Amino acid sequence: MRATPGSQLIVTGHHVGEPDRTGEVLEARGPDGTAPFLVRWDDTGHVTLLFPGSDCLIRDTHRDTHRDTHRAGAPEEVPS
Amino acid sequence: MKIADLTARPVVTIRPDATIREAAALMARAGVGCLVVAEHDRPVGMVTDRDLVVRAMATGFPVDGRVDGVMTTGVVAVDRHADVRDAIAAFHHHAVRRLPVVDGDAVVGLVSLDDLVAGLSKVFADVTHGLTAQLVFPHGGDEAPVPAVSAPT
């Protein structure tokens, strides 16, 4: 899972009716834009360091195409 | 106060492909109730003794099943150079009781709410000692008492 500053991070709800939690990636501290990510959460404004799990998605808000949403652990698409 | 001042105990980690039985045995041997699930020192999850009971035993999860099947993913961590206030905020906003302490992307420690309370209690004790000293030995104690001044009528 890779992200760039400004990407949107989405943590999907674990239970029925539980809303997704979203935040903005401020910094990717791993090599080549990988985790851990410094995230500012939209609901609280708090900033935390996150090692995302399989319930996390990254949406690149700079390029709003279907290819820009990656689930953690999922193989990345190869451009055709 | 820095996070590193609170994390005196070494963190206990386990591989994601370890079994539930190995996790329970490791908790017993190390005397801890929480393991950081790590792959090459990089945290990928957390598993507690409660997870083993509620997510494994209560559901009939096999004891030879992988520990990453019952761990909590999406690990909120705190940098070892961060201030204690950052940990307090993370505990508050994420409703967790333990935070892995990382150096870069490698886990180097674990700070719990208990560690936080114990560490802050020592700070409060030091402040209290200072206050007590000022009450017992007030400034200017060797000088004559200040005369009372009545307000002009």
Description of the structure:
Chain B: Keywords: CBS domain. Chain B: InterPro entries: CBS_dom, CBS_dom_sf, Diverse_CBS-Domain. Chain B: Pfam families: CBS. The complex is a heterodimer of chains A (80) and B (153). Chain A has a domain at 1-37. Helices cover 0% and strands 36% of the residues of chain A. In chain A, strands 4-3-2-1-5-6 form a six-stranded antiparallel beta sheet, with no helix packed on it. Chain A has strands at 8-11, 21-28, 37-41, 47-51, 56-59, 69-71. By secondary structure, chain A is mainly β. Chain A is globular, with a radius of gyration of 12 Å. Chain B has a single domain, classed as CBS-domain (Roll). In chain B, 28% of the residues are buried. Chain B has 153 residues and is α/β, with parallel strands linked by helices. In chain B, strand 1 (13-14), helix 1 (20-30) and strand 2 (34-39) form a beta-alpha-beta unit. Chain B contains four helices and six strands. Chain B has helices spanning 20-30, 49-56, 84-94, 113-136; strands spanning 13-14, 34-39, 42-48, 75-79, 98-103, 106-112. Chain B is elongated and about 85 Å long. Classes of the chains: A mainly beta (80), B alpha/beta (153). Strand 4 (47-51) of chain A pairs antiparallel with strand 4 of chain B, so a sheet runs across the interface.
Keywords, please?
heterodimer; A: 80 residues; mainly beta; B: 153 residues; alpha/beta; CBS-domain; 3-stranded mixed beta sheet; 4 helices; 6 strands; CBS_dom (chain B); CBS domain (chain B); Diverse_CBS-Domain (chain B); CBS_dom_sf (chain B); DUF1918 (chain A)
Q: What is the compact description of this entry?
A:
The complex is a heterodimer of chains A (80) and B (153). Chain A is an all-beta fold and 80 residues long.
User: Main beta sheet of chain A, described?
Assistant: 6 strands, antiparallel
Q: How large is the radius of gyration of chain B?
A: 24 Å
Number of discrete domains of chain B: 1
Q: Uncertain segments of chain B of ≥5 residues (pLDDT<50)? A: none
Shape of chain A: globular
The backbone outline of chain B, from C-alpha atoms, is elongated
* Arithmetic mean pLDDT of chain A: 83
Low-confidence stretches of chain A: none
What's the total helix number of chain A?
0
Fraction of residues in H or I helices of chain A: under 10%
The string of secondary-structure elements of chain A, in order, is EEEEEE
CATH architecture tag of chain B: Roll
Sheet having the most strands of chain B = 3 strands, mixed
Pfam families (chain A): DUF1918
Domain DUF1918 (chain A): 1-58
InterPro entries (chain B): CBS_dom (IPR000644), CBS_dom_sf (IPR046342), Diverse_CBS-Domain (IPR051257)
Keywords (chain B): CBS domain
